[in-house]
């Protein structure tokens, strides 16, 4: 009897204990039920800034949890610039769009036309954008992305090396040839070549085309789109390209952008056709380095020696995002009044918004002086795919796998194909 009673009591106690535990579990679950868990997929093709973005995302996650009780996980993908567009297009085509992704401003209208971009008009961040920058991210009266990296750029030059040899940035092709000769006489390599990633040599085409088209063939793009012009009309771009290639560092196909930044920081060449977006990487290697930004001469007409004004990196939100509210929170956080100035300063980016309060860098002021003199042009808008084809052909041209005439005919064909694909 006692044994039966003992077992009965034990059973009651066990049931009571389990019920209590169940009650506590429910209570715990209830107390945490207000925390919403969201995963954001973000693609930004700037792996050199991985540390800065990850740090900023941690700040955003803490802010979102504290203010909205949303626990955010960020899946950050940072492909190399050479592959970033292809990776994004493959994901968009397979209905696996990141919630937020970066797009070059020149490509925005193409993605917008395809229906991939969320309309950002009216978002708090858009109200703070500088008008000149805002115009680069608009299509048909709507803001379809937020600018991250707005640039005034040309080529980089080693100020210490120039000063030691009494050199100033040349304003004509002949002046550049003279600078090259003085550098060679001083046993200095004039140009750094880093051709492992095709987007780097393509910058030579961006600047040479920009200068010649903007000063001498202002209707060239319009005529190319109509099939009434050719790269033969602007073949003078090869004058400066050939000069750079013939007076550059050895084995460029073994040098990528990161290694190129290290080489430039260590004084292995006086000039590099590369933008100030590499400033963070260069200064990490050599914090004492002084470099300048100057317009690339493309002919003996100094009017064509101009700074390129562009918005290279913009952030867009996918129209199909299932976490659009949180994605928009993150996008707006890039213009946070309290935190974003530090981020932009760490990235060495130009201010693009009235909330950005920080001292700009010397090379920004130097480029701005050319802009103030009217020696600048808006980055050329080429048809989708044309820039990538230029990049590949420039590598082949340097390797002597294609001739100048073959480059011209291939680019004419690529342009016509790109135009046709949009009809």
Give a written overview of the molecule.
The strands form 3 sheets. Strands 1, 2, 3, 6, 10 and 11 form a 6-stranded mixed beta sheet that branches. Strands 8-7-9 form a 3-stranded antiparallel beta sheet. Strands 4-5 form a two-stranded antiparallel ribbon. The chain has 17 helices and 11 strands. Helix content is about 50%, strand content about 15%. α8 packs across α16 and α11 (about 255-265) packs across α12 (about 280-285). It has helices spanning about 1-30, 50-70, 80-95, 110-115, 130-135, 160-165, 175-185, 200-215, 220-225, 235-245, 255-265, 280-285, 325-335, 340-345, 360-370, 385-400, 405-420, and strands at about 35-45, 70-75, 100-105, 140, 140-145, 145-155, 155-160, 270, 290-295, 305-315, 375-380. The N and C termini lie far apart (about 95 Å). The chain has about 425 residues and is α/β, with parallel strands linked by helices. The longest helix has about 30 residues, at about 1-30. The radius of gyration is 27 Å and the shape is globular.
């Amino acid at each position: 009897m006692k044994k039966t009673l003992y077992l009965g009591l034990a059973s009651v106690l066990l049931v009571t204990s389990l019920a209590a535990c169940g009650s506590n579990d429910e209570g715990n679950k209830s107390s945490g039920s207000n925390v919403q868990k969201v995963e954001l997929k973000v693609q930004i093709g700037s792996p050199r800034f991985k540390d800065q973005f990850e740090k900023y995302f941690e700040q955003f996650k803490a802010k979102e949890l504290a203010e909205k009780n949303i626990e955010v996980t960020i899946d950050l993908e940072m492909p190399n610039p050479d592959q970033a567009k292809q990776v994004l297009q493959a994901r968009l085509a397979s209905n696996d769009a990141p919630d937020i992704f970066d797009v070059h401003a020149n490509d925005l209208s193409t993605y917008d036309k395809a229906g991939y971009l969320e309309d950002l008009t009216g978002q708090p961040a858009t109200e703070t954008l500088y008008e000149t920058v805002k115009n680069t991210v608009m299509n048909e009266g709507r803001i379809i992305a937020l600018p991250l990296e707005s640039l005034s750029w040309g080529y980089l030059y080693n100020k210490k090396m120039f000063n030691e040899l009494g050199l100033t940035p040349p304003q004509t092709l002949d002046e550049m040839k003279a600078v090259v000769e003085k550098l060679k006489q001083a046993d200095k390599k004039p140009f750094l070549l880093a051709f492992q990633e095709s987007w780097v040599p393509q910058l030579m085409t961006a600047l040479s085309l920009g200068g010649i088209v903007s000063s001498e063939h202002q209707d060239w793009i319009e005529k190319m789109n109509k099939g009434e012009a050719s790269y033969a009309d602007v073949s003078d771009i090869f004058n400066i390209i050939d000069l750079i290639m013939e007076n550059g560092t050895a084995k460029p196909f073994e040098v990528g952008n990161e290694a190129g930044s290290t080489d430039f920081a260590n004084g292995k060449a006086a000039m590099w056709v590369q933008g100030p977006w590499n400033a963070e990487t260069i200064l990490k290697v050599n914090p004492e380095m002084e470099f300048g930004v100057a317009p690339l001469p493309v002919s003996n007409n100094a009017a064509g020696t101009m700074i390129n004004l562009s918005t290279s990196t913009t952030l867009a939100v996918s129209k199909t995002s299932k976490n659009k509210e949180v994605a928009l929170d993150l996008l707006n956080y890039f213009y946070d009044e309290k935190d974003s100035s530090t981020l932009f300063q760490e990235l060495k980016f130009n201010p693009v918004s009235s909330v950005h309060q920080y001292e700009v860098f010397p090379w920004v002021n130097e480029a701005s002086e050319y802009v103030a003199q009217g020696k600048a042009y808006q980055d050329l808008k080429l048809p989708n795919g044309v820039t990538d084809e230029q990049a590949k052909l420039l590598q082949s041209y340097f390797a002597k796998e294609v001739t100048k005439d073959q480059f011209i005919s291939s680019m004419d064909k690529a342009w016509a194909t790109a135009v046709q694909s949009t009809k």
